Amino acid sequence: MPNYESKNHRGYNDRNDRRQHGAGNHYRPNNDHRPNRRPRQETPQVQVEVGQRFPLTIKRMGINGEGIGYYKRMAVFIPGALTDEEVVAEVTSVATRYLRAKIHRVRKTSPHRVEPRDSYADQVGGFELEHLDYPGQLAFKRDVVAQSLERYKPEGYRHYDLHPTLGMDDPYGYRNKAQFQVRRNAEGKVEAGLYAERSHDLVDLETCSVQMPVTMTVMRAVVQMLQDLDMPIYDEEAESGIVKTLVVRAAAHTDDVQLVVITNSSKLPHKHDLLTRIADELPQVTSVMQNINPGKTSLIWGDETVHLAGEETITEKLDGLAFKLSARAFLQLNPAQMEVLYGEAKKALDLQPGETVVDAYSGIGTIGLSLADVAEEVRGMDVIPEAVADSNENAAANGITNAHYELGTAEELLPKWIMSGFHPDAIVVDPPRTGLDDTLIETLLAVRPPKLVYISCNPSTLAKDLVDLTHDYQVDYIQSVDMMPQTARCEAVVKLSRRH
Ligand code: SAH
Fold first, then answer.
1. Is the pTM of this model over 0.70?
2. Ligand 1 center–CA 367 separation, angstroms
3. Which structural domains are found in the chain, ordered by start?
4. Nearest CA residue ID for atom 18, ligand 1
5. pLDDT 10s digits, 157-194
6. C-alpha atoms less than 13 angstroms from C-alpha of 25 in its C-beta half-sphere
7. How far apart are CA 485 and CA 497, in angstroms?
8. 292-334, pLDDT tens digit by residue?
9. Considering only CA atoms, which residue is closest to atom 16 of ligand 1?
């Protein structure tokens, strides 16, 4: 079975596939330019103790969605607090240059504060902004881009045209994939959900407002079946039991649904009964797979995936093209906004007939293949063999003959292609959260393709990369797109053009 999701793989291993310390929940926020890890053991600038309380006015919001105020000129990060609110803060940790605190009480409430739909929003990652109204969330995301630019100061950044963030009409029910840990609680009840932040305490998610409803229907029905059939559930401490994780992914445009049961061993007792019940009670499930991930590990997925029932893959449609998805294939988590994001990339590229384009960091080829009807030639690359194979298969299956994907890094392959005489008119880069490799930036500056579009899932590394890119390119505009409503995450499409 194709089996991919490298550590770099955006949206997957980097924040979805690790289990320890709450990171196993796939809603983990980013931790980029904010000092929130382990407080350093130096003397703080201000005498203050954990548990101490003081009034605090929230001045702005940090890139991870927390409120920031100042106590004796020291920054205080306070999750759940909104700009202009006045709160009583209670210190939870003390570092040299900043404090972390929780809200003890809100004294003055922001007019943008709303009641989160999910009762556990302040416990598990991924709901950092659920207490902020949606216009507030969109404004926040544009501001995160502005804050990142302010921090790295790429050339001319004060004059960049930052378009308002493109959001959803209904910023709920969008997530096509649920990946929940399973365990049996002390009373013997089977639970499935996400770990509370910085812990291994599972929060049972009976409902989840950001998931596509069908993913939750299937998830909860299967949890009930595990309970009824008394299936052996993995127990982390005892390192015993079988079922570790359930993954449900739905295709928005074909109604295909895949269930993957991730297990501690290749054995799955009561498998037959489980599959019979799924067939009888969940006709919407078109594919059932088992992934085997033995032992105590921080990774959610193991190397081996076996077919249990139905099809081996599900198919998603995008822009009139069909994409087959194996269990571990990467796909953006928000199908509706995926079209918006790719539409913006297309608009920024403004490809003309006869032009050639490189789809760098191509995943399963979604971006490049949707450009193939206009382009003379599309070339793409990714570091994951199965993704590259899928891209080429997807091209063939859709009758596309002018697109080719190669295995390798962007920084190696692009110079190689150019040396062999291929000079692309346009390049679109869509790197993982770490941003572009220095060598690739050097190549881009040496090759100077007329059109360059940068799709970013991390405003910090984007701003950093722009410092170099703006030596030769100007930023025409930055269009942020909200791919993950209710979270603090932000994606952006940057249109760059060569300086004269
Ligand atoms: N464009 C795709 C995938 C983006 S995710 C989409 O929209 O779905 C980023 C991709 O970059 C991943 O598939 C990852 O495997 C790949 N990648 C990571 N490092 C890379 C590198 N150095 N060169 C090329 N691809 C890389």
1. yes
2. 11
3. 6-21+177-315 (2.40.50.1070), 30-118 (2.40.50.140), 151-167+321-498 (3.40.50.150)
4. 8
5. 999 999 999 999 999 999 999 999 999 999 999 999 99
6. 26
7. 30
8. 999 999 899 999 999 999 999 999 999 899 999 999 888 999 9
9. 361
